[in-house]
Amino acid sequence: MNKSKILLIVVVVLTTNILTFFGARTIGVGTGGPGIEESASDELTEDLQIFEEVVTLLETEHLDEIDRNQLLHGAFEGMIKTLDDPEASYLAREEYENLMVQTRGTYGGVGIEVFIDGDYVTIISPISGTPGEAAGLSSGDRIISVDGTNLVGEDLSKAVELMRGEPGTDLELEIERLGVDKTLNFEITREEIELDTVEYEMVNDRLGYIKITNFAGTTAKEFEAALKNLKQENMEALIIDLRNNPGGLLKAAVQIADLLIPEGPVTHIEDRERVVETHHSNQDGLDIPMAALVNGASSSASEVLSGALQDTGSATIIGTQTFGKASVQTIKPLSDGGAMRFTVAHYQTPDGRVIHEEGLEPDLKVEPPAIAKLATEPISTDLSRGDEGEEVETLQKLLIEFGYFEKEVNGSFDPATEEALEQFQKDHDLYVTGEMSEMVVRKFHEEVEAFRQKDDRKMERAIELLQ
Length: 467
Fold this sequence. Notes:
A hairpin with a 4-residue loop joins strand 12 (198-202) and strand 13. It is built from 13 helices and 22 strands. Among the domains are: 106-194, Pdz3 Domain, CATH 2.30.42; 198-328 and 349-370, 2-enoyl-CoA Hydratase, Chain A, domain 1 (Alpha-Beta Complex); 371-454, Orthogonal Bundle (Muramoyl-pentapeptide Carboxypeptidase, domain 1), CATH 1.10.101. By secondary structure, the protein is an alpha+beta fold.
């Protein structure tokens, strides 16, 4: 089975998992550099010699042919696993590039979200306002080739590499579309795509609403623009939605806090030497009533912001206990094009509270409706007939909520479950396979979001409070 996902956090190929971190900093690679004692350097040289012997032995004498890159990556990952650091990881070149796209918030391309569905690179959806949307690309389209290069059976990184490029350059996509007998060709000009991380609107004539999906390099600028526009519409109170926000750049969270809370600490960062660095707000704050919405998937940088709002009394925190990730990572580029990510510090709230592995308790606890809670359960994207377990139970319960499954929940992917899933796929214009996929998860997500729009208890409580 593929790695399970939380249903409400949709994973996009142009992004990767986001954690609170300082940002990427280049370092020199080598031995005997400043700060490394000669004896330590000698020991490292001896260790690397043994490492080289192991690689050479396996390459020359192992029964099966050895892929050196795969061997080395396995060694890197093995070293990281010895650390007591669940956030540490080795990022291959493609993963590192995707992470940098997410943290910058911009890239050159056509603006589509894609995933691998069997042998096909498949479009989840075009991003609003991008060349992909303007060209008429559609959810569920399969990309057969890019500029004549076949993608059937290829991995996702190759597709992303071919589609990204300098703004102003052209590419041609060959598309297979459900219900269309022949393939379609689209010639599209790449543009600079900005990944919007902020949504906003006026809820009524006095109450503004801003949702932050993650904290990227563009988020503070987006938030400030949203705040300005809402003020021009005579906003008198504000709801900040941090639900399902997994974090991102610490700097972005601090910059946004600077716009909202009065002068004083935003967060305290403690490194390995127990040296504490305090990030401050230098402004007067937003002097209007505020509420922040959080849940169990509000993590990392979103907890930095919500913690600052709570400790300074600037906003009422509404929802359920947050995730509890109060660690800070750094990203160090490597000479192979990849990078190392590892923890370098922990943070505290302005009042010095330690919330790591604890989370923030809301001021007003509001439980979500049953379907929203169900949608936070992990579910694999490749469940099929014969699978068993808790994730199949989650699938069956969701199908019951959507009105497709009437049998007893038994955790067994049986013919009845397959039939229900096939009907769901048919009704939502998906390829009918009777198996789970990214597209099914996406449609589940849309169904849950539509339900939450009708029954958003946290939002309703915030409006009631601020009215």
